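User: Just a sanity check before I run the rest of the batch. Below are the structure tokens for the first item. I only need the designed sequence back.
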């Protein structure tokens, strides 16, 4: 069975909700990253791309009509290159990468472009369709930006609590208090700012045409635990979760070039990492933040390694509390997790975040010389995904080396 390799990754800077990228349609955000991916591999004939798989969690607005097909067309791909859109909510673009890797391993494709996009700023309000024309009563418009909407009344109430309330329950379950969450959040901002200052993102974060955003817009370099402690709980009176220790609403896109091990001549560049293991897990919908625990364990088993072999972890920080719960469960050294900051600081455009964590993981492995890494993400309605990467750099080491 041919091995699937990650050859390249790009992403936009992540913009704040109604911020610098709010004027850009999601299909254009995605098209920009796809164009850049091709530009960076001039030896790759776009017609040699066998498939495009893009993640998108909304699909109710300008990202409708299969953004996985529309974005490649806007990016100038030949009309003969097919494309599809996958929706696994927050894990959509990591799922896209996993699907792409399976296409490679099965022999159905040699070169696949994956990734994802989300404009939470431009997510529309929707009206439920009335049973008949001209209803006499009022109709409520529902925001499609985030979370539950138009909920089926047959769903158990405990499953459909808000994302924030779900994570307040995790905080209670694992005894993770407000101070620890705030410390984690402040560290995320500090690491993200330091990584940008050190130039770690320069090689793969690409500016969106028509905008002046060059860095992730949500990073607050001077954030302190004391400042975060002054914020009001957002979901429960006396609770622990605030706007400061949870990921913000964001806009952005990511793109990944995934191909077979022997496709370097077609791609025109050498691969960065081997996709060595994949894991999918599910549990109670309200416990979604803990689902990466099982997903990562499965991915490690399928890669044939254990946590003692892992030198880098990229875990999407939907909330500080769920990140801490996962780190505690894995027993991994916190110093190897999100070395360059995470979603609390960088932002979390739902459909793009999986591509961001996988691309960052590959870059961190190359920068540190570590051999093995895990990318993981939690997903609303009780799911988690994880991917194990093996660094293909000949200078890779198996012992620790932080950057």
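Assistant: Here's the designed sequence for the first item:
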């Amino acid at each position: 069975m041919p091995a699937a390799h990650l050859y390249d990754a790009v992403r936009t800077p992540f913009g704040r909700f109604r911020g610098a990228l709010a004027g850009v349609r999601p299909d254009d955000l995605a098209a920009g990253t796809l164009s850049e991916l091709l530009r960076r591999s001039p030896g790759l004939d776009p017609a040699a791309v066998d498939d495009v798989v893009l993640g998108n969690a909304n699909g109710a607005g300008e990202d409708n009509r299969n953004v996985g097909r529309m974005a490649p067309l806007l990016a100038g791909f030949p009309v003969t290159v097919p494309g599809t859109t996958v929706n696994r909510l927050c894990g959509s673009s990591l799922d896209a990468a996993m699907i792409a890797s399976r296409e490679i391993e099965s022999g159905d494709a040699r070169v696949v472009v994956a990734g994802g996009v989300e404009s939470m700023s431009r997510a529309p309000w929707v009206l439920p369709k009335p049973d008949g024309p001209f209803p006499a009563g009022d109709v409520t418009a529902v925001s499609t930006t985030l979370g539950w909407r138009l909920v089926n009344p047959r769903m158990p109430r405990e499953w459909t609590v808000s994302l924030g309330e779900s994570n307040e329950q995790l905080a209670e379950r694992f005894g993770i208090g407000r101070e620890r969450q705030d410390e984690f959040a402040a560290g995320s901002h500090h690491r993200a700012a330091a990584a940008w200052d050190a130039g770690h993102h320069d090689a793969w974060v690409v500016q969106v045409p028509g905008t002046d955003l060059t860095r992730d817009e949500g990073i607050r370099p001077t954030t302190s635990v004391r400042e975060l402690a002054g914020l009001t709980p957002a979901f429960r009176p006396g609770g622990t979760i605030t706007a400061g220790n949870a990921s913000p609403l964001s806009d952005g896109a990511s793109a990944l070039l995934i191909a077979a091990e022997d496709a370097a001549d077609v791609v025109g560049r050498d691969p960065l990492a081997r996709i060595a293991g994949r894991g999918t897990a599910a549990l109670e919908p309200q416990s979604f933040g803990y689902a990466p625990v099982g997903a990562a364990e499965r991915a490690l088993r399928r890669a044939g390694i254990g946590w003692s072999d892992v030198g880098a972890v990229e875990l999407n920080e939907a909330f500080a509390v769920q990140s801490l719960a996962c780190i505690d469960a894995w027993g991994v050294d916190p110093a190897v997790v999100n070395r360059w900051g995470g979603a609390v600081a960088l932002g979390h455009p739902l459909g793009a975040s999986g591509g961001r964590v996988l691309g960052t993981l590959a870059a961190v492995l190359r920068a540190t010389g570590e051999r093995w890494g895990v990318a993981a993400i939690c997903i609303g309605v009780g799911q988690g995904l994880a991917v194990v990467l093996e660094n293909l750099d000949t200078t890779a080491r198996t012992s620790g080396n932080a950057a």
